[in-house]
Specification:
Elements: E1 2-11, E2 14-20, H1 22-27, E3 33-37, E4 45-48, E5 51-53, E6 58-64, H2 68-73, E7 81-88, E8 99-105, H3 109-121, E9 125-132, H4 141-146, E10 150-155, E11 162-163, H5 166-177, E12 182-186, H6 189-199, E13 206-209, E14 225-228, E15 231-234, H7 235-238, E16 241-243, H8 249-256, H9 260-284
Parallel strand pairs: 8-9, 8-12, 9-10, 10-11, 12-13
Antiparallel strand pairs: 1-2, 1-7, 2-6, 3-4, 3-7, 5-6, 13-16, 14-15
């Protein structure tokens, strides 16, 4: 069991949760995730650890409320106890490579942060490119600035940084300075696909994290199968990080839509139940 120490809204639909969980905090390495169960009648969901403090015995989760369970998490209050299992997954391979470009899109910035931090501690030169639809959705800017040597921001609407996509910024960076030694990209599958296609002709090693497709986190359900060239891997036990040039992103994006109808129905039911309870509370008061 882990105890919720604090929660904070950091952007629309984004909440930072700090949990007291000393064993996981002590063992956590960049790139790993946990399985979370907020109550006995809920579903277990995989969430990437955005930060950890071994001395304080805490882990930090930055969660976007997009489904029934992540929306229900927003109702938790400090002091709540939830079940957390981990750390799971293969840690990021951290080494000194030279210049490492870390690209984060939207919710992908949260799992990118501990990786950028670890690569910085390995004495790499970190150039971070962060993007979002609007300024407020480019999350964790202060944290990323603290572990980066250079920052580039992009927004779809031009409200912050340069207007455009992270791939536009990466293309300009390569044209102006030549190819970096490594690229790490985490975000929507379509973003990671185009980052990988951009780096492929330059033969730039490119790592992507496919955590968004995970389901049970143990390799038993088979829902996170991903094609890697002629091989098939499970994201939760073999990853979640892979060579972006080998990933079959088209198949990945099809698999991401497997349970869309069920997810939308669960979200609709939760919203209706929550709205009814709120109305009942208002009548009582």
């Amino acid at each position: 069991m882990a105890t919720l120490i604090s929660k904070e809204t950091i952007a629309p639909q984004f909440t930072r949760y700090v949990l007291e969980c000393e064993p996981i905090a002590r063992k956590h390495r960049a790139g790993q995730f946990v399985m979370v169960l907020i109550h006995d009648h809920g579903e277990r969901i995989p969430l990437t650890i955005a930060d950890s403090d071994a001395e304080a015995g805490t882990i930090t989760l930055v969660v976007q409320a997009v489904g029934k369970t992540t929306m229900e998490m927003e109702l938790l209050e400090p002091g709540a106890e939830i079940q957390v299992a981990g750390p799971l997954g293969t840690p990021t391979h951290v080494e000194r490579v030279g210049t490492c470009v870390c690209i984060g899109g939207g919710a992908g910035i949260a799992p990118l942060y501990p990786i950028a931090k670890a690569m910085k501690n390995a004495e790499n030169h970190i150039i971070s490119i962060l993007g979002g639809r609007t300024k407020e959705l480019v999350i964790m800017r202060e944290e990323m600035e603290a572990v980066s040597d250079e920052m580039i921001y992009t927004t779809d609407d031009g409200s912050f940084g340069r207007k455009g996509l992270v791939t536009h910024a990466l293309n300009d960076l390569i044209e102006e300075r030549g190819k970096p030694d490594m690229v790490i990209a985490i975000g929507p599958a379509i973003m990671m696909k185009f980052v990988a296609e951009m780096t492929r002709p330059h033969e730039i090693p490119t790592i992507v994290s496919l955590n968004s497709i995970m389901i049970d986190g143990t390799g038993m359900c088979g829902g996170c199968r991903v094609g890697l060239g002629t091989e098939t891997k499970f994201v939760c036990v073999d990853g979640p990080e892979f060579d972006g040039h080998k990933v079959d992103f088209d198949l990945l994006m099809k698999r991401q839509r497997t349970f869309v109808e069920q997810e939308e129905e669960a979200r609709r039911r939760f919203e209706e139940q929550h709205r009814c309870r709120a109305m009942e509370g208002a009548e009582v008061s």
